[in-house]
Specification:
The chain is mainly beta and about 240 residues long. The chain contains 4 helices and 16 strands. The longest helix has 9 residues.
């Protein structure tokens, strides 16, 4: 259906020496004035004059010479209109009203792109093991952030098979099944956790962690087997975002 518009042509004697087209741009149905609509005077496929409608929807186009013209009105959010041809005589003023119909505006789709975060080279082993090793339990950076834990031991409570005990110094020690204490690594370095010397909460905080991997005694990666006390209880490995 062709959008509705009203064109009112009225030739009147004008005291000015120049020709003009005057009118208003209104919203179809409500009659509300449409401001900032682009109004153009056209002839022979060319734009001869251009203006914008005012707050009250009114506009005035200067006509360069007598002749046959068409006028268009356009505004974002409305269907553009082009009048039928009409003749402007010398020193004439023509009244022309447009009623624009509101229309949905199709915007270009937004395309979002992302770049995979590149982990430091020292973390390549952790991510490689997390992808291919099903024997260990892994907490990636995304899982750590989603947990929202305030202490590292609170984070580790999410890992099945780990137990915890209070130390004489008021800290919390990590234990494996049977009460033995697993071997602990920080960024690949063997850290002694025995006799309450230091706890994982003393050593690192969740916000500093890039990843955690936990193994039972029979599934410790060969490069981390030390054949000393703690190996029989498994291993807990912490990887920081920035080496501590």
């Amino acid at each position: 259906m062709r959008p509705l518009f009203v064109v009112a042509l009225l030739a009147v004697a004008a005291p000015s020496a120049a020709q003009s087209v005057r009118g208003r741009v209104l919203e179809d149905g409500s009659g509300r004035p449409i401001a900032s609509a682009v109004v153009e005077l056209r002839a022979d496929g060319l734009v001869r004059s251009q203006t914008q409608s005012r707050e009250d929807g009114s506009f005035v186009l200067e006509v360069p010479a007598a002749g046959v013209y068409r006028v268009s009105a356009m505004r974002v959010g409305y269907v553009s209109l082009l009048s039928d041809p009409f003749r402007v005589l010398a020193r004439d003023s023509v009244d022309l009203d447009f009623q624009l119909t509101a229309a949905a505006v199709r915007l270009n789709p937004v395309q979002a792109t992302s770049t995979q975060r590149m982990a430091p080279a020292r973390l390549a082993g952790f991510y490689d093991r997390s992808r291919r090793n099903r024997q260990g339990r892994f907490l990636t950076r995304e899982a750590i952030e989603a947990a929202g834990a305030s202490r590292t031991t609170d984070l580790l409570r999410r890992v099945p098979g780990l137990l915890f005990r209070n130390t004489r110094k008021g800290g919390i020690a990590v234990q494996g099944r049977g009460g033995c204490e697993p071997q602990v690594y920080l960024d690949g370095m063997d850290i002694s956790m025995f006799r309450d010397a230091v706890t994982v909460d003393d050593m690192v905080q969740p916000e500093d962690l890039e990843g955690v991997e936990v193994y039972g005694s029979s599934s410790i990666p060969v490069e981390f087997v030390r054949n000393h006390q703690g190996d029989e209880c498994g291993a807990v490995m912490f990887w920081t975002r920035n080496a501590l």
